[in-house]
Amino acid sequence: MYNQTEIIKDTTNLGPDGELVVNMGPQHPATHGVLHLVVTLNGETIKKIEPHLGYIHRSIEKMCESLTYRQFIYVTSRMDYLSSHINNTACALLVEKGMQIEVPERAKVVRTILNELTRIASHELWIGAMAMDLGAFTPFFYAFREREMITDIMEDTCGARLTMNYIVPGGLMYDIHPDFQTKVKAFVKQFKEKVTEYEDLVTGNVIFQSRTQGVGTLSYEDAISYGCTGPVARASGVSCDMRKIAPYDAYDRVEFDEVIETAGDSFARYIVRVKEMNQSIRIIEQLIDNIPEGDFVGKTKNVLKLAKGEFYQRVETARGELGVYIVSEGATTPYRIKFRSPGFSNLSVLDHIAKGSKIGDLMATMGTLDLVIPDIDR
Amino acid sequence: MLSLESITKTIQDWLFAKFTPQIALTIECVIVILLCITLFAVLGLVLVLLERKVAARIQIRLGPNRVGPGGIFQTAADTLKLIMKEGLTPDAADKFLFNLAPFVVMMVAMLLLAPIAFAKNFQIWDINIGVLYVSSISSLSVIGILMAGWASNNKYSLLGAMRSGAQIVSYELSAGFAVLTIVVLTGSLQISEIVASQENGWWLFKGHIPVIIAFVLYIIAVTAETNRAPFDLAEAESELTAGFHTEYSGMKFALFFLAEYINIFIVCAIGATLFLGGWMPLHIGHWKDFNHIMDYIPSSVWFMGKTFFLIFLIMWFRWTFPRLRVDQLLNLEWKYLLPISLFNLLLVTVIAIMGWHF
Amino acid sequence: MDIESIKSYITAHAPEATFDETGEWLNIIVESNHVKPLAAVLHGQPMQLDFLFCLTCVDYKTHLTMVYHLTSSKDRSINIVIKANVNSADPIIETVSDIWRTAEFLEREVFEMFGVEFLHHPDLRKLILEEETAIAVDEQKELVTEKKGYWPLRKDFEDPINMIKL
């Protein structure tokens, strides 16, 4: 048992300079998963953040070494579960590149539409969750109203609502649902009407702006040096959209703008994501009426074997650049596989940009980095 | 006409006729205590349900709708669950203070009920320094929160309690100055006199600009004082898990929860008394018939209506705004609200001295 | 910059480097002790390969190979891969985390998964796994823990506790 003085000594747990070490996570409402941050505080001011990962590490890279090229795609849905379609696309594209499989036009267009829907769904969830981190509960429900429509479309198409596993090497697993086009159009219509609602609720809010503007500022040089990608880097002025740099699927035939802000703070990251949703809607609108008829899957062999060599495929997920690196020895399974996940690099910058700010700022910074823990841990 | 005033009068007359004054007074005290506790329980149930329904309405969902018609027994079921739960005390906590804290918070809330005029001549204790009593007692609640945060032996609790201390102490000032505005205009600290002064029109609607400013300041300050969003930094769940009550469970947690709602009720009741005329019905100038109809509505209904309107306002804030950061919170008070309150008080004093008010 | 000029520029600065163009991108193969100087050259003018988008390690059983994927934020069409073999038994290589800050985390991951030791790394600790890793279960069903010699992503790794043998 403790006696009184020991309790008081224990409670403050002061370091040499009067610091307080707080374990945020693995169970903490703002880390959205099992991220463990060891935060050193001086009063309310953050002196150091040390991430501890691995609470949801499933060693997907090792697991994939014993799975065939058809099987390993399903595991990748569990990495960044909010953009599982895009993860699947990356793996399918890599296998197609390695085996020179011809993908039918129909499959390419449908993949692009699904990828963009996934991106919108992911950003919608992010808006809700980030607003909740900042203490506003209501935007979450508004965002989920539209996200629900996307999830329903996904359910019709793939039978799943979160881990889709719909994209296979060569095209799609099944043809799209007959209602796909009408439902997507209905969604686009509703989204355009309703997106202003939660933008009014969040973007123009004085408290929200004062909580995010100038908070967690990431400079252009640091964004590049830390390997940040996606909306995080684009908010700092780095042009890094893989859909523009190395277009895949049907991205080379659609018109859209790469959203770039220069402020680099949390508010800029917010604005980038909101604008990106509108760009995604633009892409969907261009493609939804032009889904070509034809096969939904190309001709593939029953057993997939990649030639001996190394392959790298990059795609733009909702969080940034996902890279899949495969070393093949010519067998039916990869010899070594490495997923370059966007969240991992984006997390590494957290200590740098949150140092010296308040605990409340950490929530804004962490929220706008849009961390998905399975994506970081893999 | 049957009114609360006549009921209390009958009971008092009967008691004093039957017993000696000492015994009669004791029995009256017991009745008042019982009524207070009942009011607490009922208010807790009603306000929690109201909050959940308001939140649901704002968030395009239904809210509790399974237990009883429209979910009205939901909070009763929740309370039952909380009572059945084990009240854990962490091993490393300071056990005495840890268990005392919820009762301190609760007692403060209970004491504040004393000077509130619920209806015409229906008041527990019409003390002649009523407003001063309210301001002084309400500042005591911070002791309970600090006690809870410190005794929990938890870093989140400690941070929450520290924030809460800084916040309540600062916003006390603005709330106090806003109350003083009315005191200066009325010339009395007694609640009944303040209400009586609004017979010809509520202070808010009489058209004094300092009063309108004071009302806005008061609403902001009391939202902060009761630790409600956007000022709920003491229990900011995304930052400090649950702030000062992280380690509490079961009924001890429920007491904090209840005290929060009771505090909201009390500050709104005070707000309604000071600015919206307490139990005074709405009278418009010389419209005799209209005023007469208004008089038919019982005074308790007027009081509760006004109070619940203010409560709804505070709930509306909570579900609309994000949370402020701790330094922004203190900046808002010390750099903006306090100077404005001081200036406002000066203005109203000048008005009162010159006799420009009506 | 086209491939040929890149190659001649690299040869001028690192004469021992060999090239492999069979893959999608240009591969530069160097000795492990030349990685750091070459990285510094590539990061500077005129190449400006300032974006390290992937850093990993491959276990070829006989040796480990460090793989660095580089690109330039100014011209994203240039993609260069640096490869360096390191010894399996005692893998040591100089860190590049002072050139690309992102390498700090990526190298920590490689350190705990492959056991590659990065010299002059600012904070070389395990990032994902626990500091002490359970390697076996003894007779009393207690976990036997060990600090070193446990590299999960190596090919010869066998997990005595968690792996299900098919």
Concise structural overview:
The complex is a heterotrimer of chains A (378), B (358) and C (166). Chain B has 358 residues and is mainly alpha-helical. Chain B has two domains: 1-84, no CATH class; 87-354, no CATH class.
Helix and strand arrangement:
The complex is a heterotrimer of chains A (378), B (358) and C (166).
Chain A: H1 4-12, E1 20-24, E2 36-42, E3 45-52, H2 60-64, H3 72-76, H4 84-99, H5 105-133, H6 138-158, E4 167-168, E5 171-172, H7 180-202, H8 206-212, H9 220-225, H10 230-234, H11 242-245, H12 266-288, E6 309-316, E7 321-328, E8 336-340, H13 342-348, H14 350-354, H15 359-369, H16 373-377
Antiparallel strand pairs in A: 1-2, 2-3, 4-5, 6-7, 7-8
Chain B: H1 4-18, H2 21-58, H3 74-84, H4 95-111, E1 117-119, E2 122-123, H5 130-138, H6 141-151, H7 155-186, H8 191-196, H9 209-225, H10 237-240, H11 250-275, H12 288-296, H13 299-318, H14 326-354
Antiparallel strand pairs in B: 1-2
Chain C: H1 3-13, E1 18-20, E2 26-31, H2 35-43, E3 51-59, E4 63-71, E5 79-87, E6 92-94, H3 103-114, E7 117-119, E8 133-137, E9 143-146
Parallel strand pairs in C: 2-5, 6-7
Antiparallel strand pairs in C: 1-2, 3-4, 4-5, 8-9
Write structural notes for this entry:
The complex is a heterotrimer of chains A (378), B (358) and C (166). Chain A is mostly helical. Chain A has helices spanning 4-12, 60-64, 72-76, 84-99, 105-133, 138-158, 180-202, 206-212, 220-225, 230-234, 242-245, 266-288, 342-348, 350-354, 359-369, 373-377, and strands spanning 20-24, 36-42, 45-52, 167-168, 171-172, 309-316, 321-328, 336-340. Chain A has a three-stranded antiparallel sheet with strand order 1-2-3. Chain A has a three-stranded antiparallel sheet with strand order 6-7-8. Chain B has 358 residues and is mostly helical. Chain B has two domains: 1-84, no CATH class; 87-354, no CATH class. Chain B has helices at 4-18, 21-58, 74-84, 95-111, 130-138, 141-151, 155-186, 191-196, 209-225, 237-240, 250-275, 288-296, 299-318, 326-354, and strands at residues 117-119, 122-123. In chain B, strands 1-2 form a two-stranded antiparallel sheet. In chain B, a hairpin with a 2-residue loop joins β1 and β2. The two termini of chain B are 32 Å apart. By secondary structure, chain C is an alpha/beta fold. Chain C has three helices and nine strands. In chain C, the strands form three sheets. A five-stranded mixed sheet of chain C has the order 1-2-5-4-3, with helices on one face. A two-stranded parallel ribbon of chain C has the order 6-7. In chain C, strands 8-9 form a two-stranded antiparallel sheet. In chain C, α3 links the parallel β6 and β7. The mean pLDDT of chain C is 80. Chain A binds chain B through residues 1-2, 4, 7, 10-13, 20, 22, 28-30, 41, 44, 131-138, 140-142, 145, 201, 205, 207-208, 210-211, 358-363, and chain B through 55, 58-61, 91-94, 150, 153-156, 158-159, 163, 229-230, 232-233, 236-241, 319-328.
